[in-house]
Write a structure and sequence with these properties.
With 124 residues, the protein is mostly helical. It has a single domain, classed as MazG-like (Helix Hairpins). The chain has 7 helices and no strands. Helix 1 packs across helix 4 and helix 2 packs antiparallel against helix 4. The radius of gyration is 18 Å and the shape is globular. It starts with 7 loop residues before the first helix and ends with a helix.
């Protein structure tokens, strides 16, 4: 599997099969999955906690660090797909609609090269 040839549907099914094979649906409530996703996101953040922005951009130069970061990212994504499975959320459609909202909220001409939020004075 790789990003270029694997669909979101295939990944979602991979997660669904894994959960089903272990009879874990009984534990996979949206509440539990969302909490697990937050925990895994915190574990991902630990890899970057005490390093500079530049050092964080160079993690991919260290194969061992990159593998550890990738595993935590995989955990976050697996839980995100598990949550989508539990709630019957179409991930591709939801992301597309969210990006449409983001384009309206953050027009490229107003936010080109700027941090993701307008300054306080701009919104007053």
């Amino acid at each position: 599997m790789n990003d270029a040839s694997t669909t979101i549907s295939e990944l979602s099914q991979l997660i669904a099969d894994f959960v089903e094979e272990r009879d874990w649906n009984q534990f996979h409530s949206p509440k539990n999955i969302s909490m697990s996703m937050a925990i895994e996101a915190a574990e991902l953040m630990e890899h970057f906690q005490w390093i500079s922005m530049q050092e964080s951009r160079e993690v991919n130069a260290d194969a061992e660090k990159l593998e550890a970061v990738g595993e935590e990212l995989a955990d976050v994504l697996c839980y995100a797909l598990a949550l989508a499975n539990q709630l019957d959320i179409d991930v591709a459609d939801t992301i597309e609609r969210k990006m449409q909202k983001n384009r309206l909220k953050y027009p490229a001409q107003d936010f080109q090269g700027r941090y993701g939020h307008k300054h306080q004075r701009d919104s007053e």
